[in-house]
Amino acid sequence: MTMTMNTREFGRTGVHVTPITLGSWPMSGDRYGRIDDSEAVRTIHAALERGITSFDTAPGYGSGHAEETLGAALVGRRDQAIITTKCGIVPAAHATGQPGRDASRASILREIDDSLRRLRTDHVDVYLVHWPDPNTPLEETMAVMDEIQRAGKTRLVGVSNFDVDLLEQARGLRDIDVLQVGYNLFDRRQETEVFSYCQRNGIGVMAYGSLAYGLLTGAFTEDTTFEPTDWRSNGVAFGQPILGGDNFRHNVGLVQRLRDEVAVPLGLTVAQLALAWVVRNPIVTTAMVGARVPAEIEENVQAANVQLSDADVARIEAIMDQARGRVNVFRPFGWAMQVWN
After folding, report:
1. 61 is catalytic
2. Residue 25: which pLDDT band, with cuts at 50, 70 and 90?
3. What CATH number does the domain containing 293 carry?
4. pTM higher than 0.85, yes or no?
5. CB neighbours of 94 closer than 8 A, spacing ≥ 6?
6. Vertex 189, ends 30 and 228: CA angle to 5°?
7. Which of 61, 127, 208, 213 is catalytic?
8. Residues spanned by the domain of 213
9. Average of per-residue pLDDT across 51-64
């Protein structure tokens, strides 16, 4: 039997999503290690059956493979899903032959049609500029996003990894419905300015990396290593060196403390605790979490119903105040796997 979950509105758009979004990057088969596609499809079906209606993907995840997998899983069930995908990260940016950012009109027009074909649909619900492109005027990017929306190929338009200055520029050109940014117990940079800006201006917020790219699952030990093809192997996650060396070993210890001192007494896993902490923020419309097997869906959906007390939050944050590898800046034009000083 399919279950239902309470929903939240994306800003002031009238479009509602579940507080948990299934992210598909771990299903892409490239940067998180190999995965069986049939298992990925079963995981998406498990999400639907447990009440999750929001699904995030991007052509940059496995060169479109994540979109293809999601499209295959939603055959006959498209009306049950809110699909978010993105543009602006391509294999050959600006005709250089090198992968990178390309948010030009020509590139985005190609990308939307390719994404719709892979997703087996005539429209997506949310279309985001994945990262700002320093080589394309924002006016050109926003104009083509307008064009795509007018053509009925997306319901909402948004951006990902934009700071307040870029959001202000974008909003001067057209409405921004949704912002997607990283947010978790190891990364609270968006609380400083971005979240309050979104709240004032009616912008929905999708929080990615809710489990800190696996660190908050409780599955890592001090001896955990990553395969060379795994993007986490250099120890840096979106400018923060939280996943490498002494920082990693120390942070694994903090996660163990979260489990033993807070999660277990509440009858939760540490992943449920960390996800519940994200979901409790009223500015966050939906918290994104990846899954590779159906069992992970069961664990994650329970976090949507967890009510953390102020005392619980105080204990969590007292432990996390000791995290290592955090940085205070967010650099939209920086390379995500390089430390942002």
Report:
1. yes
2. confident
3. 3.20.20.100
4. yes
5. 100, 102, 104, 107, 135
6. 25
7. 61
8. 15-220+270-306
9. 91
